[in-house]
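Reply to dn_fold:

You asked what the input looked like. This is it:
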Amino acid sequence: MNNDRKKGHFDFINMLKAQGYSRGLVFVSSLIGQPFERVKVYQQTKIKKPSISVYTEIYKKSSIEFYYRGFYATLFRQMAVKPTIRVPLTTSMPSFLQANIFSPNQISPIFSVALKALASVSIDVVIINPLEVVKTVQMSSDKRLSLVEAINLIKNNRGYRGFYAGSWSSVTKGFPAWFNLFASYELTNWFKKDKKQAVSLLETVGSAVILSAPVTFLTTPPDVIKSHIQAESLRGKSHQNMWQTSQVLFKERGASVFWRGFLERLVQKSANLTVGLLVMRYFHSLIEENIESESQNSNHKDSSKERGNSL
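and this is what came back:
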């Protein structure tokens, strides 16, 4: 009975190790992915210009400052929030549900994945959306805006509600992305279930690219809508809902506008999924090590008791 309770235990030291590993990988991926994010947002918020013209404009403006504008908001969003979400969801939630709400055989993999994705996207909207708005305003501005200047601009133009502009679009694109992360982890593990060796880095990267492509294609339209709604904070315009914004975008540039920034997002999402899979595997390897250590200690205590009884 005690062993059943201990299964899946994740102590404080392991939590710190997991958080450190996660934040290290997220920092590297944020550093590499920032230029792609910058180009994507610039593409999505300059819809009145043809896509080729925007790429030409980006090429002429190319500089370290241009590509890394809005980086601090992105970095804080990625490092401070996402690892904090991912650690408890990939470690504590399944065992908590099994111990307190459901029996182990009542939780289907799809239900578990959907529940974790729903929890993730809910936290995304509450905590991350304000940072997304700040980042988008910085990146879509023709002049350089500091973090504080962007925050004040949003607050002065739209009030505090402005920090939640595009929330429904964030939910629409966020849920499939989180679902893809958790499902990809289960799927790649399932393919390797009959093999003793772990999933290699090359297999992780390859599966991340393949699994990211359809989800990125599906979620790019709401991402374009979100970027457009959030960029309106620069002009102090009132909120538009997703349907109104999509109508405006369609009238101005046609259906193709909804897939602006697709290639940049694919690179980003593939990198993010790779990092997510690596982090989740590391978390679970720590759990397995902890379970094995507890099992050895328990066996040692049992054998010591047996020797004591025999004496």
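The chain has one domain: 2-290.
Hope that clears it up.
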